[in-house]
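Weekly sync, protein design subgroup
Attendees: M.S., D.O., the rotation student, P.L. (late)

Item 1: inverse folding check
M.S. brought a backbone from last month's batch and wanted to see whether the design step gives back something sensible before we order anything. D.O. pointed out we never logged the input encoding, so this time it goes straight into the notes. Structure tokens as presented (98 positions):
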């Protein structure tokens, strides 16, 4: 029996949000334009979320390649740092917008 490998390429629109933060920016900008109450997240928060997702993807890739223990440590540190920065910015933004 023949075996086939199917490669799927996701088309990315330049207008599609990469993260939830970008989606939130777009929806809140719309609310502002409509004269409704809005809370637009700062760009630093959105960038931190994207960095956190990139660090998580790198960690997952390293785990898939079979890296273990001390070879996985830099990926775990990068993930931890990115997650910490994101959470700090999120808490700050939520406190400022209440």
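Designed sequence read out in the meeting:
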């Amino acid at each position: 029996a023949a075996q086939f490998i199917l490669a799927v390429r996701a088309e990315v629109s330049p207008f599609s949000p990469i993260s939830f933060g970008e989606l939130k920016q777009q929806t809140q900008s719309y609310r502002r334009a409509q004269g409704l109450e809005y809370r637009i997240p700062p760009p630093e928060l959105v960038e931190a979320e994207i960095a956190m997702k990139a660090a998580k993807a790198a960690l997952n890739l390293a785990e898939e390649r079979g890296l273990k223990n001390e070879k996985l440590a830099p990926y775990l540190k990068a993930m931890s740092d990115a997650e910490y920065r994101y959470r700090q910015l999120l808490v700050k933004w939520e406190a400022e917008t209440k």
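Discussion: Residues 20-96 form one domain. Helices lie at 20-33, 43-64, 73-96.
Action: P.L. to compare against the previous round before Friday.
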